[in-house]
């Protein structure tokens, strides 16, 4: 009997130790850093670096059957340059949140992970699951800072410290309406004349009158709303849209977006469109993507946030040529940048080496191409100049490495361009990013922790009203006031005040 | 007279069950036909029992991943067999003593089991124990162990059955005859309890077969994915790509044209059909009149 | 003072001596039941490791977890993690919805599952009985996500089976199901029964099958009809199973089937007044926050409500029949 109790106590102690050890790293880190301390001088001195295996977790969405081969090739590069091997850890999007939460809570080997505002970046930074990067960037991240400079890199910060670096892709978006070209031509619609939502109404009316069975306008996709798809042209959502900046040239004044006259007029517009039959009646239960609905002749156009090359890609998806009318210039906010980033996990035994690897992702074209497209000659072939494509006999259905994740890995501008896109895609993208209107709060990111109770309650209210109002299925006459009242009682004002406070502190620190 | 009344009664029952069966089958039939419909006609006309355009594209899509799917079937079958057998054994061994009215501390024991049905410490501690104390990440054990007792629910149900369907005096008489507790349990109790063992066994089988959650949190090695886990991942990835197609470039959209609606249904079909085929095996043990006589004889 | 203390000490010594004397029958008893105790060892140990050890994590509900500090060293914050559960005006609605739905489910599932089980038992043709048994189980095997899509196929405003086929036949105007919350209590109850009754009925069927046929024979000789056999023999004999199933379900009364309340209404905002329950509220609240302290708090809250209710109902049951009680 006594023995059994002892055994149980032993297991119990083991568990307590494990639970305690989960956080032990913060103290452990300096000594870990010490073990590789002799490398502090310069990143290039590979001879002095001890071998290390970096575990790199990323979102797996495409075909990665041949990842082991690619990994072996990647290791040739990384061993030569930073004497590290890389162990890729692909995690499916459906499993990501759970597995990443647990891996970060436990003490598993993990050095680098993909993160984003939508993947709990805020919580990860606030709860101490990510390593602060400022110093590491200073020491080992010269190439990162070269490409992702100034305000852009601050998008991955929390409480004034940087915790993640964004990949180089579209850091901005322009907004507008994407339409079927054949129908635009048929009714001789002047695409360039569409400059605002009001201009669209007449176009929609034409479709409604002449194309029965075809929805005039759709949101960007299921579980989006028509307004949501273009709202970024009017506000900087400051992350979660609880407290926003209206316009891009005003002062740093956080307001409750849903209370503003701008919002009221937008949802009124949605309601008018819904009542006029432009937005399909069953929009709230629609489960089909807008591209598919266009393909099936059930829709004419959809609202979207776009980037260079957007129409040509969407045309492929919709199976018919599309044209876009843009109602705003490119706009860049923290949210559009912090969409996909890399962070270094608290679990990492060698954060410095992790940073060296990240730095390679922003400077080594060979490495980036390898990860993005696989092995040359096997997974892709150079077609012409910088354009690549599948080798003969291979297509997307039998490809063994077709991960479609270039947007995730460091500097995408270093990579080749897949056939189907124009050869100057990256140049255009770069111009697009540089010329974008920058939000006054670019680089500010909100930490929700102090008002998490309110954020939780507000989210439920938003789920109840937001999409309905913004698709016009709910009448704003009666539901908008109810929405606002419920938001207030859930504590929206407290969130707005907290956000203002954090924004002011940020502004003061960045003067 | 009585037999005519009986016949009428039987007819009514059959009529009732035929209606019930239709209610259960109709949605399943819809699921089945949808999986054989072309994606285009679903987008146009919605689901239908008689679609305008039949198609095998969903199954063709799944077939292109046949290596993985075949392997995951193997893993699911293995995990289900072992898990059900071990789980059923532990449950029976735990619930039988609890059912004995003379067993000391039986109420406390029942409480010990029941308490686990309500309170749990959440995922993080469980995960830490299994991965760091027992090192089960990326092992088949992680698919088997966490589901063994399914919260004590089955244990308490079994206890009630043992308690009520096995007369106490036959245990007493056996023990007077000199049979040990283990002999009584294996030679008398288990054979008498075949219906409930089959019931709980079936429920555990369904539980293991449909479990995707343990795979989701403990498995990152794609070679160890169970069927539901693999299907879930394929589906969610496809959904993610479609909904986030704006992130991609033109060269990358080929992946986004998966016939999602029909694939979803085809996945449900290939997940459910094997279970339905396994059902008759359990039904064999749903035998009436398995009573003392059978054992005594 | 001193004397009373020493007297108390003496009394204690005496008591422990008595205890030692009494131990020998205990030992004997232990020996007699040793095989039974051996039987329970695997299960007891398993539950200890799988369920009791992780309960240390319940403290997360009262902590502001910071992984840099570790779970144990994180700050205690009292009930702050629980606040969001009560902070909203909807707290009352979600509590009401959760309880009413679960009570309805418990009662209707019981009646219908037992009813189907009794009827299945009466089917004389074995092949037919087996066939029906398999068929009623099918709904349970289909995942809730799929059920959500099938429900949409039935209820969709424009292409739905009910609006297109059934209602016109009855001369009723089409209903926009997904924007009128008042229909959903009925829809969700039907979906729940459709999905679970077949599964639950197997348990009751196993209980009915286990009834000694001699009981019926005796009753038939007494001239009792089918109805009397059912009400006077069958139901009383499966009462313990019914009781235990009900008690176990009461324990989960503050939990709800997330898929049923989230996937089947397709997360439609307009329907929230009749479809929001504790689990969906928590899911929506935390989807962007990912705070493990707050999710633990919700789980603990649900458990405690269930626990108290089970203790109460178990007490009531054990008053009437000690044997039917859970513990």
Automatic annotation (TrEMBL), chain A:
<dbReference type="GO" id="GO:0004435">
    <property type="term" value="F:phosphatidylinositol-4,5-bisphosphate phospholipase C activity"/>
</dbReference>
<feature type="domain" description="PI-PLC Y-box">
    <location>
        <begin position="390"/>
        <end position="444"/>
    </location>
</feature>
<dbReference type="InterPro" id="IPR050490">
    <property type="entry name" value="Bact_solute-bd_prot1"/>
</dbReference>
<keyword id="KW-0732">Signal</keyword>
<dbReference type="InterPro" id="IPR006059">
    <property type="entry name" value="SBP"/>
</dbReference>
<dbReference type="GO" id="GO:0006629">
    <property type="term" value="P:lipid metabolic process"/>
</dbReference>
<feature type="signal peptide">
    <location>
        <begin position="1"/>
        <end position="20"/>
    </location>
</feature>
<protein>
    <recommendedName>
        <fullName>PI-PLC Y-box domain-containing protein</fullName>
    </recommendedName>
</protein>
<dbReference type="Pfam" id="PF01547">
    <property type="entry name" value="SBP_bac_1"/>
</dbReference>
<dbReference type="InterPro" id="IPR022627">
    <property type="entry name" value="DUF3502"/>
</dbReference>
<dbReference type="GO" id="GO:0035556">
    <property type="term" value="P:intracellular signal transduction"/>
</dbReference>
<dbReference type="InterPro" id="IPR001711">
    <property type="entry name" value="PLipase_C_Pinositol-sp_Y"/>
</dbReference>
<dbReference type="Pfam" id="PF12010">
    <property type="entry name" value="DUF3502"/>
</dbReference>
UniProtKB/TrEMBL annotation, chain B:
<protein>
    <submittedName>
        <fullName>Sugar ABC transporter permease</fullName>
    </submittedName>
</protein>
<keyword id="KW-1003">Cell membrane</keyword>
<feature type="transmembrane region" description="Helical">
    <location>
        <begin position="109"/>
        <end position="128"/>
    </location>
</feature>
<feature type="transmembrane region" description="Helical">
    <location>
        <begin position="189"/>
        <end position="209"/>
    </location>
</feature>
<keyword id="KW-0813">Transport</keyword>
<dbReference type="InterPro" id="IPR035906">
    <property type="entry name" value="MetI-like_sf"/>
</dbReference>
<dbReference type="InterPro" id="IPR000515">
    <property type="entry name" value="MetI-like"/>
</dbReference>
<comment type="similarity">
    <text>Belongs to the binding-protein-dependent transport system permease family.</text>
</comment>
<feature type="transmembrane region" description="Helical">
    <location>
        <begin position="263"/>
        <end position="282"/>
    </location>
</feature>
<keyword id="KW-0472">Membrane</keyword>
<dbReference type="GO" id="GO:0005886">
    <property type="term" value="C:plasma membrane"/>
</dbReference>
<feature type="domain" description="ABC transmembrane type-1">
    <location>
        <begin position="73"/>
        <end position="271"/>
    </location>
</feature>
<feature type="transmembrane region" description="Helical">
    <location>
        <begin position="73"/>
        <end position="97"/>
    </location>
</feature>
<dbReference type="GO" id="GO:0055085">
    <property type="term" value="P:transmembrane transport"/>
</dbReference>
<keyword id="KW-0812">Transmembrane</keyword>
<keyword id="KW-1133">Transmembrane helix</keyword>
<dbReference type="Pfam" id="PF00528">
    <property type="entry name" value="BPD_transp_1"/>
</dbReference>
<feature type="transmembrane region" description="Helical">
    <location>
        <begin position="12"/>
        <end position="32"/>
    </location>
</feature>
<feature type="transmembrane region" description="Helical">
    <location>
        <begin position="140"/>
        <end position="162"/>
    </location>
</feature>
């Amino acid at each position: 009997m006594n023995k059994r109790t002892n055994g149980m106590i032993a297991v119990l102690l083991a568990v307590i130790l494990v639970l305690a050890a989960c956080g032990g790293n913060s103290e452990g880190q300096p000594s870990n850093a010490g073990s590789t301390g002799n490398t502090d001088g310069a990143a290039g001195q590979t001879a002095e670096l001890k071998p290390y295996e970096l575990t790199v977790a990323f979102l797996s969405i495409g075909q990665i059957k041949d990842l082991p081969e690619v990994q072996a090739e990647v290791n040739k590069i990384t061993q030569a340059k930073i004497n590290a091997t890389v162990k890729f850890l692909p995690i499916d999007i459906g499993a990501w949140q759970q597995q990443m939460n647990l891996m970060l809570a436990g003490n598993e080997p993990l050095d680098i992970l993909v993160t984003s505002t939508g993947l709990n970046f805020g919580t990860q930074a606030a709860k101490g699951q990510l390593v602060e990067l400022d110093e590491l960037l200073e020491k080992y991240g010269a190439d990162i800072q070269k490409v992702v400079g100034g305000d852009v890199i601050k998008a991955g910060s929390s409480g004034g410290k940087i915790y993640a670096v964004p990949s180089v892709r579209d850091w901005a978006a322009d907004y507008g309406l994407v339409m079927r070209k054949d129908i635009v031509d048929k009714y001789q619609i002047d695409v360039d004349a569409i400059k605002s939502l009001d201009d669209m109404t007449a176009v929609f009316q034409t479709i409604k009158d002449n194309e029965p069975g075809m929805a005039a306008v759709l949101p960007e996709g299921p579980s989006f709303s028509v307004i949501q798809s273009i709202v970024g042209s009017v506000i900087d959502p400051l992350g979660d849209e609880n407290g926003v900046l209206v316009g891009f040239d005003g002062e740093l004044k956080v307001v409750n977006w849903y209370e503003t006259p701008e919002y009221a007029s937008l949802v009124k517009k949605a309601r008018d469109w819904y009542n006029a039959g432009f937005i399909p009646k069953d929009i709230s239960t629609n489960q089909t993507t807008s591209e598919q609905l266009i393909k099936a002749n059930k829709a004419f156009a959809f609202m979207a946030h776009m980037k260079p090359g957007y129409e040509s890609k969407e045309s492929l998806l919709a199976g018919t040529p599309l044209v876009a009318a843009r109602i705003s210039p490119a706009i860049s906010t923290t949210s559009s940048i912090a969409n996909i980033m890399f962070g270094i996990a608290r679990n990492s035994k060698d954060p410095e080496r992790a940073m060296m690897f990240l730095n390679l992702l922003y400077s080594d074209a060979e490495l980036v191409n390898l990860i993005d497209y696989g092995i040359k000659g096997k997974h892709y072939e150079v077609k012409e100049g910088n354009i690549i494509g599948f080798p003969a006999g291979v297509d997307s259905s039998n490809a063994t490495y077709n991960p479609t994740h270039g947007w995730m890995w460091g500097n995408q501008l270093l990579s080749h361009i897949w056939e189907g896109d124009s050869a100057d895609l990256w140049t255009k993208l770069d111009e697009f990013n540089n010329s974008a209107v920058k939000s006054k709060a670019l680089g500010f990111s909100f930490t929700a922790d102090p008002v998490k109770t309110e954020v939780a309650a507000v989210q439920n209210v938003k789920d109840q009203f937001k999409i309905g109002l913004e698709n016009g299925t709910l009448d704003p006459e009666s539901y908008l006031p109810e929405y606002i009242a419920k938001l207030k009682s859930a504590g929206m004002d407290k969130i707005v005040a907290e956000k203002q406070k954090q924004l002011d502190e940020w502004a003061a620190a960045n003067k | 007279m009585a037999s005519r009344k009986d016949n009428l009664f039987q007819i009514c029952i059959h009529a009732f069950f035929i209606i019930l069966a239709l209610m259960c089958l109709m949605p399943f039939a819809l699921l089945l036909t949808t999986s054989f419909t072309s994606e285009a006609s679903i987008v146009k006309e919605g689901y239908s029992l008689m679609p305008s355009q039949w198609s095998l594209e969903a199954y063709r899509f799944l077939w292109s991943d046949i290596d993985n799917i075949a392997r995951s079937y193997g893993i699911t079958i293995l995990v289900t067999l072992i898990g059900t057998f071990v789980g059923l054994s532990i449950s029976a061994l735990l619930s039988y003593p609890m059912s004995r009215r003379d067993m000391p501390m039986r109420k406390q024991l029942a409480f010990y089991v029941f308490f686990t049905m309500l309170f749990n410490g959440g995922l993080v501690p469980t995960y830490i124990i299994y991965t760091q104390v027992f090192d089960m990440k990326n092992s088949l054990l992680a698919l088997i162990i966490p589901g063994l007792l399914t919260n004590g629910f089955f244990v308490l149900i079994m206890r009630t059955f043992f308690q009520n369907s096995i007369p106490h005096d036959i245990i007493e008489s056996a023990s007077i005859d000199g049979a040990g507790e283990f002999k009584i349990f294996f030679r008398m109790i288990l054979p008498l309890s075949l219906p409930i063992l089959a019931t709980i066994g079936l429920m555990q089988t369904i539980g293991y077969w449909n479990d995707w959650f343990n795979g989701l949190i403990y498995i990152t090695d794609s070679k160890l994915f169970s069927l539901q886990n693999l299907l879930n991942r394929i589906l969610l990835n496809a959904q993610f790509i479609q909904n986030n197609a704006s992130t991609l470039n033109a060269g990358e959209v080929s992946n986004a044209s998966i016939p999602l609606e029909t694939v979803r249904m085809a996945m449900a079909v290939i997940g459910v059909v094997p279970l339905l085929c396994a059902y008759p095996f359990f039904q064999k043990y749903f035998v009436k009149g398995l009573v003392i006589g059978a054992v005594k004889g | 003072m001193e004397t009373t203390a020493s007297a108390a000490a003496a009394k204690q010594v005496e008591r422990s001596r008595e205890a030692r004397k009494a131990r020998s029958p205990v030992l004997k008893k232990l020996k007699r039941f040793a095989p039974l105790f051996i039987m329970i060892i695997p299960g007891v140990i398993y539950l200890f490791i799988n369920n009791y050890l992780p309960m240390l994590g319940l403290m997360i509900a009262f902590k502001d977890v910071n992984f840099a500090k570790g779970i144990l060293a994180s700050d205690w914050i009292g009930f702050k993690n629980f606040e969001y559960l009560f902070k909203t005006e909807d707290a009352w609605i979600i509590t009401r919805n959760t309880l009413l739905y679960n009570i309805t489910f418990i009662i209707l599932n019981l009646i219908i599952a037992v009813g189907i089980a009794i009827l299945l038992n009466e089917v004389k043709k074995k092949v037919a009985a087996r066939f029906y048994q398999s068929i009623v189980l099918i709904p349970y095997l289909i995942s809730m996500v799929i059920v959500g899509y099938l429900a949409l196929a039935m209820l969709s405003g424009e292409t739905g089976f009910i609006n297109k086929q059934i209602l016109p036949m009855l001369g009723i105007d089409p209903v926009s199901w997904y924007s009128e919350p008042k229909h959903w209590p009925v829809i969700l109850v039907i979906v729940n029964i459709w999905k679970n009754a077949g599964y639950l009925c197997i348990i009751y069927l196993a209980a009915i099958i286990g009834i000694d046929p001699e009981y019926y024979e005796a009753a038939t000789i007494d001239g009792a009809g089918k109805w009397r056999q059912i009400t006077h023999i069958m139901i009383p004999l499966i009462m313990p199973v019914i009781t235990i199933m009900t008690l176990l379900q009461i324990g989960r009364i503050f939990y709800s089937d997330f898929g049923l309340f989230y996937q089947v209404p397709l997360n439609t905002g307009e329907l929230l007044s009749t479809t929001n329950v504790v689990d969906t509220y928590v899911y929506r609240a935390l989807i962007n926050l990912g705070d493990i302290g707050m999710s633990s708090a919700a789980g603990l809250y649900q458990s405690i409500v269930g626990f108290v209710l089970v203790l109460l109902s178990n007490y009531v049951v054990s008053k009437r029949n000690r044997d039917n009680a859970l513990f």
